[in-house]
Amino acid sequence: MSARSANRRARAILRERLALLAQIEASMELPMLVLGFAWLALLVVELLRGLSPLLEALGTAIWVVFIVHFLIEFSTPSRPTRPPKGDSTTTAPHCGGRRPC
Questions:
Q1: pLDDT one-digit tens code per residue, 43-92
Q2: pTM of the shown model
Q3: Which of 3, 30, 55, 67 could form a Cys-Cys staple with 51, CB 3.0–4.6 A?
Q4: What span, in angstroms and rounded, lies between the C-alpha atoms of 30 and 98?
């Protein structure tokens, strides 16, 4: 396998990965929105008259889902993280916020 075909294959895999991440994010948007409004309703009920143990457990479960969703979003970057080419922090001394030095 040549370097060129390996590079094309790597780009295709990256495109597929980004497309899959976009699909997952899109499919999770509505359920998280519904859970957000359900939690808001629970908050209003709690402030007005208090929660039963069942509703309190439901509120805790919603928070657990929120935290798990956040951790998944945080741990899966949508793009590979690498410094840009010619980044001034890696190729030139600090210029005091001015470009070019």
A1: 999 999 999 999 999 999 999 999 999 988 888 776 666 666 665 555 55
A2: 0.63
A3: 55
A4: 43
Residue pair 51/59 in contact (Cβ under 8 Å)? The answer is yes
Question: SS3 letters for the chain?
Answer: CCHHHHHHHHHHHHHHHHHHHHHHHHHHHHHHHHHHHHHHHHHHHHHHHCCCHHHHHHHHHHHHHHHHHHHHHHHCCCCCCCCCCCCHHHHCCCCCCCCCC
- Report d(CA 12, CA 15) in Å as an integer: 5
Whole-angstrom Cα distance, residue 9 to residue 55?
50
- Residue pair 77/16 in contact by the 8 Å Cβ criterion: no
CB–CB of 43/60 below 8 Å?
no
What's the rounded Cα separation, in Å, for the pair 62 and 39?
Answer: 7
